[in-house]
Amino acid sequence: MTIQTPPDPTAADLAKHLPQAITRYLREADPQHKANAHDLLSAFATDAIVIDDDGKTYTGHDEIHHWRETEASEYTYTVEVSHVEKFDDTHYVVTNHLEGDFPGGVVDIIYRFTLADDLITKLEIAP
User: Which of 92, 84, 81, 85 is closest to 114 using CA atoms?
Assistant: First the structure.
């Protein structure tokens, strides 16, 4: 008798099981979704730190909100989750494949999330 092995879950399937704060951030940061600043910021701790793909650091809700507002309006692009990895209950990595009108037109962006109390305390973004 052969026991069937279930297929490996795809990155999109794994993304469905991410913590709510990460899911909320990814949804609100997706350019196809009409972003809501309140929902976006509710994913972050009040003193959260974001380090963007240019190496700039944003601390706290006001700076994160300003960063997302300027970043979101700069380019048009599509997003597809291509990789999800859980290291422990507080550390996750999500890779998104982006295609759009930004310089180069195609890039994979790595998001490194650190969580505490079900909120993002640190987000590092790298190409």
Answer: 92
